[in-house]
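ARCHIVE CARD
CATEGORY: sequence design from structure
SOURCE FIELD: tokenized fold
FIELD CONTENT:
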């Protein structure tokens, strides 16, 4: 898997990159919707639409609350 990730750009044409980008964005949009449903819709529909459209502002991860440090 690591070799595949490391070599993902090898030999791709600009058109291939467009296809790869489009497919990745579409897949992640479905994943956001799936995970939102899986956890009982903690994200309201308006924010979900914004995120899937690429317009959502990211929420800053709270390392302290999670019990993690940035050491």
């Amino acid at each position: 898997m690591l070799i595949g990730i490391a070599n993902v750009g090898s030999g791709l044409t600009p058109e291939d990159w467009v296809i790869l980008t489009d497919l990745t964005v579409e897949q992640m949009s479905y994943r956001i919707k799936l995970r939102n449903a899986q956890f009982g819709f903690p994200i309201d529909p308006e924010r979900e639409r914004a995120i899937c459209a690429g317009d959502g502002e990211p929420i800053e991860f709270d390392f302290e609350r999670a019990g993690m440090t940035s050491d």
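CARD ANNOTATION: The chain has three helices and no strands. The mean pLDDT is 87.
SHELF: design records, drawer C
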